Amino acid sequence: VDLTEARREAEQLDARDPLAHVRDRFSIPDGLVYLDGNSLGALPVAVPAVVEHVVAQQWGRDLITSWNVHDWWDAPRRVGGQVARLIGAEADEVVVADSTSVDLFKVLVAAARLRPDRRTLVIEPGNFPADLYIADSVAELLGMTVRRVDPRDVRTVLDDDVAVVSFAQVDYRTGRAYDMAGITAAVHDAGALMVWDLSHSAGALPIALGACDVDFAVGCGYKYLNGGPGAPAYVMAARRHHATVRSPLTGWTGHARPFAMEGSYEPAPGIDRMRCGTPPMLSLLALEAALGAFDGLSMADVRERSLSLTRLFLALTDRVLAPLGFEVVTPRADDERGSQVSLAHPRAYGVVQALIARGVVGDFRYPDVVRLGFAPLYVRHVEVVDAVEHVVAVIEAGEESDPRYVVQHTVT
Amino acid sequence: VDLTEARREAEQLDARDPLAHVRDRFSIPDGLVYLDGNSLGALPVAVPAVVEHVVAQQWGRDLITSWNVHDWWDAPRRVGGQVARLIGAEADEVVVADSTSVDLFKVLVAAARLRPDRRTLVIEPGNFPADLYIADSVAELLGMTVRRVDPRDVRTVLDDDVAVVSFAQVDYRTGRAYDMAGITAAVHDAGALMVWDLSHSAGALPIALGACDVDFAVGCGYKYLNGGPGAPAYVMAARRHHATVRSPLTGWTGHARPFAMEGSYEPAPGIDRMRCGTPPMLSLLALEAALGAFDGLSMADVRERSLSLTRLFLALTDRVLAPLGFEVVTPRADDERGSQVSLAHPRAYGVVQALIARGVVGDFRYPDVVRLGFAPLYVRHVEVVDAVEHVVAVIEAGEESDPRYVVQHTVT
Predict the structure, then answer these.
(1) ipTM for the whole complex
(2) How much is the pTM?
(3) Size of interface A-B (CB pairs under 8 A)
(4) Which residue among A133, B6, B125, B310 is the one 20 to 30 A from B72 at the CA level?
(5) What is the DSSP code string of B370-402?
């Protein structure tokens, strides 16, 4: 397989890429082809100094006074405002708090309470498993029924018993992107509320929560937002719900007067009511510093770069990898694709492990998926060619059949 | 007021203090008298290098492989095991996850589900407000009733409708410590389950969850455990409940086979089932490093030092501060006291602010409490004398009546 020509074209794409300089905002090990930014985003260069300051100066020197002096208190809302710009929400509609699963729990209970006469929760069967588990738990607590349906078929289940519909905008496994505007409108037509999980879309493509009239959203801080391992997640609640929405996780930081230490809960007037306990400040302020990597970028440009990367990978896959037994799982239409490409292969686990041994990091999703993420802020076109070249080399040498690589699904 | 003699005695206490060297495990600004370790523990010297490594090497260089290479995956259980040693639990009974409020929510729902025929939740009126709010929310979700009673009077409300009793071992406001063994036994005699919030006791006094047969506990990572601002909290579940307890926060990390990405939730066999989403690794690993400050210490020695500090402060208060209008709120009997002393004063807010301006950091609790925490790992006896001297100076100069110090309860 000769990829000389492909490499030259990729180099040209990189040379005229208006976002090529953004890679300098990240610290990426030399020689590593990192295609797992959809799982854990790379380290932005601005982060280490900020974290060092938070530890040594804010915690170490200023101690408890940092809640005011360094405005720790307002950080969840402040960082929420930064996230809001990336997802098409107003700054006062987003707050950073807890994990994605905990936030989804809050939002599903809160949304269901806004439709008390309806008893059905709709979710898609291919959603990230935690979303399925949380939906089942919410349904058990509230005495509701869960229906699972492909988002493209949502209209077939919408009736006047559906309280809430909750979908992921981009499927974590296949990389399929759903039609946020159309689905949200259909859900509203049926009188239900719409929740989107943005974990696999925010930071990779333009999102217009406001324009799509979305009710609630949640998302992860450590994938395309690059906030660091386990960075806190975020909740978006449309302003029209702020007066009435009630989170079941009534922690003190969501109280209207948190320092009055009152005996009963009165939710804060705005998005703060979706907060719960004290946030993990090291992780939260690392996320804040990381979000600076998006400064000055238009999400339309970011999306164009993402599509350019995935288009190139799909073209090379068709030409080079399909004959080696790889089948494209991700949709080919640009508007149905996130920023990853998933390939099915009978020895997918071995392929992923052999690639990692070669310095090409993607991940495996049970049972047979090689998942490669093209984080649009730092992956280069030449690395797309590198990846394809290494996949070919793996298969040609049979490296994926190494007995160490028997399918395991109990490790990452 | 002449404190010369008191200072000499304090210096002697410090000189023969077997734990005096432990202060060297902390980075405390020169000249600062820090009496707020019950709210945010000081920075252990081991932490900055660990956090730097986590950011630059684990996240930055090893990226996603750190889940295995640096065993991020097992960190919640591993750090839980460290906490277990401080609270008298088995290593496999404690896991670090989420915030105290979120963990209390999990535990109250989980415990109530173990007593499905009982509909009453008992909590004390003076508990940290978040605990009250969370209990109310749990009761609403499960259709239960909350009764609030002073822990010393718990026997008056125990009947066969009580499913769960949840108290704080040490009251955050008064510093009163409750009888864990006696109360837990009484609750069990009534067929109910016992939950303790250890936020204001763990790390300051010996706790014997196992010996007291406690069912569940939660606690904060950033007070006497010194884990850093918003460090994750922990959950203890007694081993006898592991097979049957069900958390309502069914995140993927609590699943029996988290990487199998199954469509329905099956809780992990042990304490892992109390996990939920991906933990904030920077904050979690800072907590792990911080807990090293307890290495080689016996909690009995730590407790003796804590009592020595609070006894000295109480004695000086009686002699010097009582005539200036300060009233001791905290119990005087050693076994009824945590590691803080609270003083009521009509201008408490101004006193706290004036002390902070003088480099003596305590905190204010609405409406009239000056709260001073004597973290036993790093506060010295001479600092107790310093604090008293500064309180005297504040009152003598009328500094607490500065018009800037009008009572505010909307700031920390």
Answers:
(1) 0.96
(2) 0.97
(3) 282
(4) A133
(5) EEEE--TTT--HHHHHHHHHHHHHHHHHTGGG-
